[in-house]
Amino acid sequence: MTTLTVAERAMELFGQRPTSENRIDWLANQLLDLAAESHFISCRIVPGEGEIATTLECRDSGHAVGLKDVGPLRLFRTLLARFAKMAEEENGTQFNPYGGQLHFNRPISGAPVRLNVEFANTKEIQYLAIVKATRAA
Question: Does residue 45 lie in a domain region?
């Protein structure tokens, strides 16, 4: 049995289609849960050059995986804006769909964990990093 890296698990999430809830909400929450388990996840759009296609890349602290499927690429900018809306709803953070630094508290093993999220969602750069910080107060 092969154990998937955190980066591979993150990439797999982009291919799943939950039936019970909004796909973007589900994906955002799954990525937060995965980061809470693992300490770090980043995802970004890597623009292609020439005949090389644009790629979605996911990283953990030691691995990177890429995917050239347009489905996840189409979801990514909406996902980034959803993180901004979630932070507004959960923490009162001012909504800015184009980037910023956010935080979320999530329970892991019965104790709350703070997750710091940094993202950029502009025409030039689309990037997401989620870092497990400290236990939430």
Answer: yes
> Does 43 map to a domain?
yes
The pair of three-digit structure tokens given for residue 33, joined into one six-digit string: 């849960």
For the chain, how many structural domains are there in total?
A: 1
Partners of 101 in the β-ladder: 118
pLDDT score recorded for residue 99: 96
Structural domain including 19 reads 6-135
42 backbone φψ class: left, alpha, beta (φ>0; ψ -120 to 50): beta
- Cβ atoms of 71 and 55 within 8 Å: the answer is no
Residue 67 within any structural domain of the chain: yes
Q: What is the mean pLDDT of each run of 10 residues along the chain (137 residues)?
A: 86 84 90 90 85 81 83 84 95 94 86 92 94 71
| Residue the block writes with tokens 């923490």 | 91
Q: What is the CATH number of the domain that holds 117?
A: 3.30.450.90
116: closest CA among 127, 102, 105, 126?
102
How far apart (Å, rounded) are the C-alpha atoms in residues 70 and 55?
8
CB contact at 8 A, 65 and 8: yes
